[in-house]
Amino acid sequence: MSVRILALVGSLRAGSHNRQLAEAAVKLAPAGAEVALHEGLAEIPFYNEDVDVEGTVPAAAAKLREAAAGADALLLFTPEYNGTMPAVLKNAIDWLSRPYGAGAISGKPVVVIGTAFGQYGGVWAHDDARKSVGIAGGKVIEDIKLSIPGSVTRFAETHPADDDEVAGQLTEVITRLHGLAGEPAAA
User: Fold this and answer.
1) Residues sharing a CB contact under 8 Å with residue 130, sequence separation 6 or more, in sequence order
2) Strand partners, 3
3) Distance, CA of 26 to CA of 56 (rounded, Å)
4) 42 half-sphere exposure, CB direction, 13 A CA radius
5) What are phi and psi of 18, to 5 degrees?
6) Regarding beta strands 139-140 and 73-77, do their DSSP bridges make them parallel or antiparallel, or are they unpaired?
7) How does pLDDT run along the chain (187 residues), one tens digit per residue?
C-alpha cells in the first residue's frame, strides 16, 4: 500500500535547516511511502472567516487543503521563533482546521519534528504545533518526536541527509508514520 505524507515547513527562509530536513525526508522515504513537500505557505493569507467562503477561498489556501485532503498523513517541520512555532505554520493549521469538525486534517496522523539553534532543538515550538494541530482535528502521534538542537552549527557544512545520525532518526520517523498511516481506520 502506498502512503502519501504531506510535509509542511514552518520556515520560509531559502536556506532553512527545517526545509533541508524536509528535503531529506523526501529523499529518505522508505518504499511504499511518498513524502510530498508542499510549497506556497507564504502565499496563504492569514486565516479570516470572512474570506473562507465556498467559491471565494484564496487559491493558495484551497491548494493547501487539497494537498492535505489527498494525503494519508502529515509531517510538520518547525523551527522555534521566540519560544513557539512560526506564524506561517500556525496559519496553515488554521486553514486546515476548517470547516470546523471536517477540516482536511481531521483524523489524519500528524507528526511534528524539526531543528532549531537552541540546546533543545525547538521542543517548545514542536509542543505548541502538536497542541494546535490536535485541536484542529489532526490525530497527533505523541510518541514520534525528533528535536535536533544546534542547527546553525550542526548543519553549517552538512545537509541533514548527509548526517548519518539525523538520516537514521528521520528514516525511523517516516517509517513509523508510514506504518501508522497505512493502518486501516478503526471501525
Assistant:
1) 110, 112, 140, 142
2) 33
3) 32
4) 5
5) -70, -35
6) unpaired
7) 689 999 999 999 999 999 999 999 999 999 999 999 999 999 999 999 999 999 999 999 999 999 999 999 999 999 999 999 999 999 999 999 999 889 999 999 999 999 999 998 999 999 999 999 999 999 999 999 999 999 999 999 999 999 999 999 999 999 999 999 986 544 3
Q: How far, in Å, CA of 136 to CA of 133, rounded?
A: 5
Q: Global pTM? A: 0.95
Q: Is 99 helix (H, G, I), strand (E, B) or coil?
A: coil
Taken in order 29, 104, 91, 56, is the CA torsion positive or negative?
Answer: positive
Nearest to 126 by CA among 148, 107, 105, 151: 148
pLDDT of residue 1: 65
How far is Cα 128 from Cα 1, in angstroms, rounded to an integer? 32
Alpha helices (H) along 35-74: 59-69
Contact 30, 178 (CB under 8 A): yes
Cα–Cα dist 103/93, whole Å = 10
- Is the preceding omega at residue 99 within 30 degrees of 0, hence cis? yes
